[in-house]
């Protein structure tokens, strides 16, 4: 388990993170969301043992990553660019990783073949998308228990983005690995994350269990002969409104509002699939979502 | 556990400098010895003692090798800080002590092995020649160790500067500055004293500065040096570098300095040194017959102009 306890970090007298607490259980996917500058990358760099916290402690399997760095054999950090690897050839990086991690070369080669990688030449000759995918293949081939992904799909086209997200989902499903993904794209995270940590101005604004979350709310589309009655508006969160049609978010167990809607004889009343973005817009004013 | 992966990483990044260093030492000793023998055959040997000592003493290639040693330290420490390599390295499951000691040992062996082989080959070339008798005039131990300790202290200083500077350019520039700082300051102060009518000659009697810690001079084995100074300072620089590397705050990598605590020292030191240089340059262009008053005015004009610009530069360097 990764445990972040009371971690704060100041850089150039700016407090980037303030008293951050959370833990990551084994075999889960944790989404770290927040706007640019919220402290996501700083937090991941601290978990990876790159930056020392100003206050607080970070442990992996109860071992402090700074005092017992060998525990980082179980932690692989994948930054948002593969620049650090660019001078290596694939065979060089494999040799290097075999010395550090319990690297599964056979599996690595299978993945390279699956994604049709050219095994010759240096990594710098790969396209941006290939570099991102290659970094992930490398990370998941290490057999590390914790993979930290910093904006893994940032700046990539939709096709490679889809490939990458699918690859991460498959790896997590097949292996007993925990993944922390930092992103400002809620739509990407909700498909695979079990647990969401929202960072806002350096603090953990909220923690959400995805399974609980979706059972807590309902997203409904309603339309009335006239406009949305004010007494219904007051009882729910209005996600959008266009003419006589409104999209509302209500608590799943809110029978009273449900009854009020039914009593108002709507000409349309249907449930819509709930997204993480809906909840953030409704509950947090949408400030965290940056497309 | 032997950190083989770290050795592989250092080799990957610094091998070109290591090869260059080997080539320089080969030119400096066995190849130079071969050419020297040819020269002695045709022109004869002049002063035997001087000729053989000169062969094993410093020359332009020793200066190149010092440049390469500074560059090697830059490739071991500074270059990683300019890029994502720093994060990559720090995220590896090795302690900072392991990382530093690997870097240090790799660099040190990259100097001592080619130097020793080349020195021995040069010696062997002379032994095999008709001029082997010249070796009686050579103190082999002193010739070998004076230069080696000179390289050791320069390398250790470069590594120390590498741990406090935030990227390779500042590491290389600061290493060169600090290599000559005591002597440079002495010269600047002597010009200052001279311009203001004081006797500056006594400053140059400070042999500790003009000789004992004038590290680049140690490649000249014909001078009579105490080997204790480079040994003690080399060890001191190494220990400081180790301490500094262990406590480096990674968030400042890529900046001019890794330690914000050092900013006031540099904010004061750079403009003052710059101002002294500015004063010196402007005072020396004043014609000799112009008189002391004009010289002093020119000095202070140069001082003020230089302090203004170096302060601006320092602010930019330190991102103030």
From TrEMBL, chain A:
GGDEF domain segment(s): 243-291
SUPFAM superfamilies: P-loop containing nucleoside triphosphate hydrolases
UniProt-listed Pfam families: ABC_tran (PF00005)
InterPro entries linked to this entry: AAA+_ATPase, ABC_transporter-like_ATP-bd, ABC_transporter-like_CS, ABC_Transporter_VariousFunc, GGDEF_dom, P-loop_NTPase
Domain ABC transporter residues, every copy: 2-226
Species this chain originates from: Filobacillus milosensis
Residue ranges the record marks as coiled coil: none
Protein name, as recorded: ABC transporter ATP-binding protein
A GO MF label: ATP binding
Keywords from the named record: ATP-binding, Nucleotide-binding, Transport
TrEMBL record, chain B:
A Pfam match: ABC2_membrane_4
Keyword Transmembrane in annotation: yes
Superkingdom of the source species: Bacteria
Keyword list, A-Z: Membrane, Transmembrane, Transmembrane helix
Chain ranges passing through the membrane: 56-79, 100-124, 144-165, 172-193, 227-245, 265-285, 297-314
Name of this chain's protein: ABC transporter permease
